[in-house]
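For reference, the entry.
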Amino acid sequence: MAFFGTAAQAGPTLDQVRARGTLVCGIHTGVAGFALPDSRGTWQGLDVDLCRGLAVAIFNDVSKVRFVPLSSSTRFTALGSGEIDVLFRTSTQTMLRDTTLGLRHVTTYFYDGHGFLVRNSLGVRQVREMNGATICLIQGTTNEQVTADYFRSVNVPFRPVVFERTDQAAAALQAGRCDSFGSDASQLAAVRSTMQNPREWTVLPERFSKEPYGAYVRRGDDDWFELVRWYTTAIIEAEEQGVTAANAEQMRRTSTNPNTRRLLGVTPELGQSLKLDPLWAYNVIRAIGNYGELYERTMGENTPVALPRGPNNLWTNGGLMYPLPMR
């Protein structure tokens, strides 16, 4: 009774999602590791799993989510207009996006940096060697500005060729219309994995920007912001505490760690503060796993993307993933 009583006083977005019975989640139009349909047409990837996990936090049902694929140029408009409830779509958190779009970015769930993908036969080892190169870029991304800023800073000319979608840029690169593709390194690794012969391509080692990805929500609904923020944090916290999809049930029954007991709903205060079932985080971890499990199955070294954890490892392992205290 206490749970349903507080749920009725939730913020407008959560109330709308509950009334609709489905979470509407904005994702990429198609990039391996983050969001890409498999051979059966089922969306797979890190962003996709984050959407599914949020549906579990609200409904305890991984299927109660509808995916809306969005291009870089339409993603923020779709969120602002109410077409989607939340955006999990390889979206860098920047000051101007946070202060001018009527949106708020939430907790960082992936750290990246701008790089360049080139064909090995070009013999390029450093980006400054690409004098006069034609570079594929995606419209509406921070990568357009980063590329222009870098080449201007080293006084090297280049020719941009701008596309709406990643698959269009990848096809142009493969066909020889561009000498290089400039984007975030994770997406370049994803593109390379889909090439006819990935070994013919190299993501150059230099990085030219900070690209921290976070979910985006509309301004003016603090309850929804807090739910998405602490949901994302809970998945990272679960990895730090060693809670996995396989052992969550046992740890809920046997752990004496106060942090673990709170996370898994043995004590109800975290769920109550978010107007969710006390078992919300436990249900999420059982359904999709902790952050490390999500990362390894979507873009880890045993996947076609084969991207090492790097900064996306826990802070205790030399990375930048540092979950805020859940107490």
Summary: The chain has 14 helices and twelve strands. The CA atoms of residues 57 and 256 lie 24 Å apart.
